[in-house]
Amino acid sequence: MLFKDKGSKNGLYIGTAAGLVLFALLGFFPSAMVGGYVGIKLAELIVGAPAVGILPRIFATLSMIGAVIFTGLVFVLGGPIAGWIVGTRFELKAEESRP
């Protein structure tokens, strides 16, 4: 079984909560800004320097959504993995210290 004791399961839950909070505070806005910038530059490369119209807006929107989704996946998957590792380490330390 993947979870031996409560330590790894609690670490997973704490890591999930921390990942969601960090994404909300540090990940959402910067990833949307970077994604929009990349979309605008991509539209300039494809359409031309005066990027006006619906196609540049579509590029910017899709790149913003993609950047936010990718950053969200990194935070939401990275937090639980880190929490599970820390919880498992504490669990192993507790087993070693038992007589």
Describe this structure in words.
The structure is a single chain. The protein has two helices and no strands. With 99 residues, it is mainly α. It has one domain (7-94). The longest helix is centred in the last third of the chain and has 44 residues, at 54-97.
Q: Mean of the pLDDT scores?
A: 85
N/C terminus separation: 24 Å
- Rg: 21 Å
The tally of beta strands, per DSSP, is 0
Gross morphology is rod-shaped
> Oligomerization state of this entry?
single chain
**Secondary-structure element sequence?**
HH
By secondary-structure content and strand pairing, the structural class works out as: mainly alpha
Query: How much beta, percentage-wise?
Result: under 5%
Summarize the main sheet.
none
> How large is the count of helical segments?
2
> What is the helical fraction, as a range of percent?
over 70%
Keywords summarizing the entry:
single chain, 99 residues, mainly alpha, 2 helices
Task: Give a quick summary of the entry.
With 99 residues, this protein is an all-alpha fold. It contains two helices and no strands. The radius of gyration is 21 Å and the shape is rod-shaped.
